[in-house]
Amino acid sequence: MSMQNKPQMVDAVMFFSEHGGVCKQMFFTEFEALLDGMVNMPEFADQQVRAAYLMINPRLLIRSVVFFYLDFDEKGAPDNGWNIPLQHLAEKSGRGPDMGAGPIRLACRSQCPVSWHQMHLWDPSLAPGQNDLVTLRDTVKANQLGLLIEDDSGQSVVAERLQMVSDDKWYSPDPALEEAQKVAEKLNQEQRLKAAQLIKQQRLRIGSLSLQHEEELAKLKLASEKHREVIEAKMALVQKALAQQKELNADLKRQLAEQAASFQSSREKMTEQLRTLQTNGRSEIDLMRAQFDTEMQAKIASAVVEYKEQIAIRDVELAYRQELDGKLQQEIERLNSEREQLTGQSGDQILERLSNLGMVFVVYHPGAGHLTVALQDIARYQENPLAYAASKCFVSEEQYRQWLAHYQQPACEALLANGQRCAIRIDRVDAPSRFKLGDSNCCARHKDAERMRTLG
Fold first, then answer.
1. What Å distances lie between residue 198 and 192, 195, 290, 390, CA to CA?
2. What are the tens digits of pLDDT across the range 136-173?
């Protein structure tokens, strides 16, 4: 066997299934590649998996174990914030049970050398038939990872094969006896060590069970407290509803008693009245009938008088309305006559009549001032007032319109590069005949630009 193929201590990681058995095993280098994101494990997607880090010697015996949790996301990639120093924990952890090569180094929740990593570790089950350490030992012995094995040719001494000398030779200097005593003492020491390891293993199991018991007890206490709070809240609501119901029942009883007393009093009064009516019934009925007839006759007479007065008032109002209608009819006839006289006269005749009376028609237009419109020009002025004013200013109608816009708002109308007007205040040209488009309605800068463009 060459030096390259010599068996060495191997680091491995094994994953536990939900049912307790080992479902996946890999070398620690492969586990580091998994943590670096080079590979994923879709079978563990969106789960928290129990895993164990192992240090295995060349004889396929476990020397160190670290039980830890590892979270996977929905794609099967491990938590990128996971940073538990497995090798450091395996080297610094306390002693565990003997798994064939002496006491192992064991790191778990109840035995963790670094306190802030304790929450990320878990305690193995040591129950008979479900012992996680035995499961790891058997899995390592199966050697599915294909580890190189070192031959163990050494022979150990079996305790049953040891022989003791006879009693008569105990006190004689016999080398064989001394050697047997040494072997027996060594065997006794080994048995003590195994017993100590067994006790420590049982203490570890007891600690693990105590921790599980405390967690279950805390959960039960929390659930009991919540249940007690819910029960107390329900009892408070029931007691409140009961008190309200008792108060309501007392109010109803009081109301019923009052109503019963009132009904009894009313019934007694009604009985007394009925007896009185039965005694004096006929005479009272005759008296009431006579009184009713008298009152009815008086009401009828009063109503007849009132209606007669209303009819007289209506007759006077009707006569007044007839007289008013006659006057209105005469006024309508007079107005119709005047309308017919005015309709026979035309508009020109009216204007001519007004002109003959000395009336003058004067209008005002900017630039032209007050203009006197002759009688023969009134029709032309009505058709287009701006054209009439432009002719009086000796300019065209278009030039007069442009000048009028400049006169009303003297600002530069040149367009800038952004499409908006310059709008700088400029001097107003008072006469339409002196207004020149592109010069009079532009500022000095745009006048020069317009002049250069025209010359070019």
1. 10, 5, 127, 127
2. 999 999 998 888 887 654 444 444 443 433 434 433 45
Segment 3-30 mean pLDDT: 85
**pLDDT value of position 94:** 86
**Backbone phi, then psi, for 425, in 5-degree steps?**
-65, 135
User: In 3D, which of 177, 90, 176, 98 has the Cα closest to residue 137?
Assistant: 98
If phi > 0 it is left, if psi is from -120 to 50 it is alpha, else beta; for residue 12 that is: beta
Neighbouring CB atoms inside 10 A of 27's CB total: 15
Q: Where are the alpha helices (DSSP H) in 81-172?
A: 86-92, 132-142
CA distance linking residue 434 with residue 402, whole number of Å: 12
Question: What is the Cα 203 distance to its own chain's centre?
Answer: 52
Question: Could you give the angle at which helices 397-408 and 385-392 cross, rounded to 10 degrees?
Answer: 90
Q: For the whole model, what pTM was predicted?
A: 0.38
Query: What DSSP designation does 114 have?
Result: S
Question: What is the mean pLDDT of the segment spanning 340-360?
Answer: 68
- CA nearest neighbour of 393 among 364, 433, 428: 433
Name the residue among 435, 451, 362 with its Cα closest to residue 398: 435
55 falls in which pLDDT band (50, 70, 90)?
very high
CA–CA distance, 54 with 31 (Å, rounded to integer): 12
Q: Give the torsion through C-alpha atoms of 314, 318, 324, 327, to 10 deg.
A: -160
Q: Residue count of the chain, please give it.
A: 456
- Read out DSSP for 164-229? ---GGGSSS--HHHHHHHHHHHHHHHHHHHHHHHHHHHHHHHHHHHHHHHHHHHHHHHHHHHHHHH
Q: Is the pLDDT of residue 86 over 90?
A: yes
User: What would the two tokens of residue 311 be?
Assistant: 């009819």
d(CA 38, CA 32) in angstroms, rounded, equals 9
d(CA 23, CA 45) in angstroms, rounded, equals 15
For every residue of 379-448, DSSP letters joined together read HHHHH-HHHHHHHHTTS-HHHHHHHHHHHHS-B---B-TTS-B---B-PPP--GGG--TTTTTS-HHHHH
Phi, psi of 134 (to 5 degrees): -65, -40
Residue by residue, DSSP assigns 54-70 as: EEE-TTS-EEEEEEEEE
pLDDT average, residue stretch 113-121: 89
